[in-house]
Amino acid sequence: MAKITRKPVPRKAAVPKKKAKPVATKPKAPAKKSLKAAKPWTPAEVHEVFSRFRKANPEPKGELEHINPFTLLVAVVLSAQATDAGVNKATRALFEVADTPQKMLDLGEERLRDYIKTIGLYRTKARNVIALSAKLLSEFGGEVPRTRAEIESLPGAGRKTANVVLNMAFGEHTMAVDTHVFRVGNRTGLAPGKTPLDVELGLEKVVPAEFMLHAHHWLILHGRYTCLARKPRCEVCLINDLCRWPEKTV
Ligand code: SF4
Q: Among 114, 125, 136, 194, fewest CB within 10 Å belongs to which?
């Protein structure tokens, strides 16, 4: 049998494999941890949080200086977009001469402006304080009224003002939400909300009645001195084991 010889097939020159072009990918943003995914607070945990606040500071006080309900109302109206320390600096001298609606009217808008000119928006605030003093005299017998609707009807006074006055002057269980309470309510997950009203209603729902009188002060002080806006001091925070903020640093 004839031997079949195969012609050697010329080998194709090896084509160097093309390197895969690196696909341009967007750098991935670190996945944002969601507070929504956090474990909901149990009533026992909320109780524990406020028990710790109470133990650390049984009688928390607001930092706005005042002498009576009227001066408290004026101080809160002046404190919009201003610090308590800045307001106190101005009102110490003011309240020595005008601690009632009548005395405030007697002082007059121009001289009032002089006392409070270190406070932001002082012109508008002076106008409001004079107008609210006049209204207190004409409609409320010179006294600060005791209902939310009546306080909110006063020039320069909104929901937060009413909540502070009702709580501090009249011992009502209201929850005033300022920038600190808003931040703490959201970060901790105790009462997340897009608006101060959401947070207020959320906190009212979860905070046990026995803590409500002081709850807003504890939360304000916690936000002002511990749960700071830029650099929260989680390492010294009383409630760091319970806080649900995914970015807490402990
Ligand atoms: S652990 Fe940090 S983020 Fe949470 S409440 Fe405390 S300070 Fe605020």
A: 194
Q: For residue 37, give the DSSP letter.
A: G
* Inside any domain, residue 28: no
Is the same domain home to 42 and 77?
no
Of the residues 160, 194, 205, 241, only one is catalytic, namely: 160
Query: Whose CA is closest to atom 4 on ligand 1?
Result: 243
Task: Out of 127, 148, 168, pick the residue that ends a domain.
Answer: 168
Please state, in angstroms and rounded to a whole number, the distance separating the CA atoms of residues 228 and 48: 21
Q: Nearest CA to 127 among 104, 150, 144?
A: 104
Ligand 1: residues whose CB is within 6 Å? 187-188, 226-227, 232-234, 237, 239-240, 243, 245, 248
Mean pLDDT, residues 33-42: 76
Annotated active-site residue in 61, 114, 117, 178: 178
Nearest Cα residue to 163 out of 105, 216, 227: 216
Separation CA 227–CA 108 (nearest Å):
41
The count of domains in the chain is 2
pLDDT tens digit sequence for 165-201: 999 999 999 999 999 999 999 999 999 999 999 999 9
Ligand 1 atom with the smallest distance to the CA of 249 is 2
Q: Is residue 179 located within the same domain as residue 155?
A: no
Task: Render pLDDT for 102-140 as a digit per residue (tens, 0 to 9).
Answer: 999 999 999 999 999 999 999 999 999 999 999 999 999
Q: Is 84 a catalytic residue?
A: no
pTM for this model (two decimals) = 0.83
